[in-house]
């Protein structure tokens, strides 16, 4: 089973839209952000699970586990993430450093992810914490100030974690998509957004890297709405498309282009943005003036 935005590139047949003039696009999207009920949305989103932990070291590992499972319907993936996190207790980072086995995961199944896959992810994170001190330290090993995006550092990060996990199963590798293959790596870019943006009502801002280098976490909602707004024209859902959307948003906010991601994504998740033009819905849409649907 393959999902647009994860793993290798996925081709879609779509019609590109014409992007509105930058001042109009910026004004409309900034106005849209002022209408979002951030706290309510956060509690319905996977990132709400991460906020339920207090210690930065716990939030870091919970974010990676939760983001790795962030495929499928939101309610189902939130349940799966909470079930997977259960054996780690209230101090996940400490629990992962012990290097124990995880028999509690033997019956775990979430779509294509099995208990052994989650156990391998736990093992990978535990070894990373033991050898590097934190996930941020591991990520920083391959980061260079001259990088134009975070793909090189993310590739190193994933390859090390796969090595530490000690599993060749397809399910484990799906949890940690390989950026070197050119896919959009939606869940890993979501994890990076949580770690690097903020802190605000949604993202945690725990890692010290430039927000402007983040690639857009591409799911079906962002890809679709991005096309309605003329933010992208590329037909393949891959890393290049993730950067195309990011670069369009850089024109609106050079320092923090992904500040629009959460709100636009939740328009799709909530059904507020339909896949076909529906006058009864579209007439009240806060970004109707700049939408080409």
List the helices and strands and how they pair.
Elements: E1 10-11, H1 22-33, H2 38-43, H3 47-51, H4 56-68, H5 74-85, H6 92-97, E2 109-110, E3 113-114, H7 115-132, H8 135-140, H9 151-165, H10 170-175, H11 186-196, H12 220-228, E4 236-237, H13 239-250, H14 261-269, H15 279-282
Antiparallel strand pairs: 1-4, 2-3
Q: Give the number of domains.
A: 1
User: Structural class given helices, strands, pairing?
Assistant: mainly alpha
* Elements, N to C (H/E): EHHHHHHEEHHHHHHEHHH
What's the total helix number?
15
Estimate the helix proportion, in percent: 40-55%
Q: Give a count of the beta strands, DSSP E runs of length 2 or more.
A: 4
Average pLDDT for all residues: 91
| Low-pLDDT windows of residues | none
Q: What shape does the CA trace take? A: globular
Rg, nearest Å: 19 Å
The major beta sheet can be summarized as:
2 strands, antiparallel
The strands making up the biggest β-sheet line up spatially as 1-4
Compute the separation of the termini in Å.
Answer: 29 Å
Strand content: under 5%
């Amino acid at each position: 089973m393959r999902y647009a935005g994860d793993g290798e590139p996925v081709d879609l047949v779509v019609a590109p839209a014409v992007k509105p003039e930058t001042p109009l696009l910026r004004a409309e999207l900034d106005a849209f952000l002022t209408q979002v009920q951030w706290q309510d949305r956060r509690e319905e989103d996977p990132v709400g699970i991460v906020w339920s932990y207090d210690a930065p070291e716990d939030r870091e590992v919970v974010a990676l586990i939760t983001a790795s499972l962030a495929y499928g319907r939101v309610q189902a993936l939130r349940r799966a993430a909470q079930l997977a996190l259960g054996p780690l207790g209230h101090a996940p980072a400490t629990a992962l450093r012990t290097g124990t086995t995880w028999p509690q995961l033997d019956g775990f199944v979430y779509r294509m992810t099995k208990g052994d896959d989650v156990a391998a992810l736990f093992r990978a994170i535990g070894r990373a914490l033991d050898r590097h001190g934190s996930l941020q330290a591991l990520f920083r090993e391959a980061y260079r100030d001259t990088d134009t995006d975070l793909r090189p550092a993310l590739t190193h990060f994933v390859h090390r974690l796969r090595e530490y996990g000690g599993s060749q199963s397809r399910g484990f590798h799906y949890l940690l998509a390989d950026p070197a293959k050119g896919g959009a790596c939606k869940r890993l870019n979501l994890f990076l957004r949580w770690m690097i943006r903020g802190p605000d009502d949604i993202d945690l801002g725990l890692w010290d890297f430039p927000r402007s280098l983040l690639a857009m976490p591409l799911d079906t909602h962002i890809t679709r709405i991005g096309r309605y707004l003329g933010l992208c024209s590329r037909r393949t859902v891959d890393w290049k498309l993730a950067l195309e959307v990011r670069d369009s948003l850089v024109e609106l906010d050079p320092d923090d282009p992904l500040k629009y991601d959460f709100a636009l994504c939740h328009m799709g998740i909530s059904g507020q943005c339909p896949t076909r033009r529906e006058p009864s819905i579209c007439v009240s849409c806060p970004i109707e003036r700049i939408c080409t649907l």
